[in-house]
Amino acid sequence: MTGSGERKVYPVAAFNRRLAGYVGRIRDVWVEGEVSELRSNPSWANVFLVLKDGRTGDCLPVTMQRRRFDAIAPVLAEGERVQALGSLQLYEARGELSFRVTTLERVGAGGHAAALAELRQRLAAEGLFAPERKRPLPRFPRGVGLVTGVDAAARGDVVAAIETRFPAVRLVVAETRVQGPGAPSAIVTALRRLASCDGVDVVIVARGGGSFEDLLPFSDERVVRAVAASPVPVVSAVGHEQDEPLCDLAADRRAPTPTAAARLVVPDLDELRASLGRARQRLAQGTERLLARDTTRLDRARERLTAAPPLYVERRRATLDRSAARLQALSPRATLARGYAIVRSATAVVRDAETLAPGAGIEIELARGALAARVEEVRS
Length: 380
Description:
Oligomer: single chain
Number of helices: 10
Mean pLDDT: 87
Largest sheet: 5 strands, mixed, barrel
Number of domains: 4
CATH class of the largest domain: Alpha Beta
Distance between the termini: 175 Å
CATH topology of the largest domain: Rossmann fold
């Protein structure tokens, strides 16, 4: 700074540096306007745009880090109304004022609805909502994770329902932000932490009812992808039954209320005991029926075994009698009894008269007794 009498004169660099100090005090301010003059390049570290007042046409130059801008889904387009959170900065070398933004949010349910419809269509095309991706919930989970808001009523509903239905299960609660600009990243962090906990077999993401804007974090692309990528099944219980945030479509099951989510993930202990009692009763009745059936079979087998030997002997006797009758019918004795005789010469049976000569001695066997004779004449 130089002086000339009463006049204070600042060099441009010094003035800009001092002005930057004043400007830098304006921090964490929300500004609303329409997006215009959007400039982006993959090689740039920042994205540049202008927020314009739709009524007056006043403009405010805005810069935003590329990684933060690229995280907005769907991508912002010119003409959309947004609310921007940021701080004023002065580029000292050029004396240019800029609003350095850390968060950009669409304004109005209509704009959000259109953006969500586009995001829903894109994620569905990737297969994130496909039914074949849905996993069954464990019948008896060792542990249940719960992502919910701090001091939220949904937390109390889930905890009370689980402790009433199945108090033996381990419940791990992660309270986090569920509304506002930082909610999506906080929900993703809590979900990943719970899903990686040893013994946690299923995770509930729960939030009570709210306005369309209040539930928007659960339709954020980061949250939806985290739900779809969870290593354990996820049950979404966000809003009321008529609400449908995108995390509902990516989750393995959707519950209309937090209490209903608790009923999905754990069995009812009283019902289990009743079912066990019925099973025990059916087992006892079945055992009695089997015992009675086997007793009857044994009695019948005993009767058959008692009757079998005499019956067997009788059958064998009848068989022997039939065999004896057949043998008797085939016996030469039976033939002799009908008037026939057996003629022998020495020890051989005579079958041909020409084998004998007159004067040869023969023996004639009859049915009763035998005769010795001599051949007087041979006839052929």
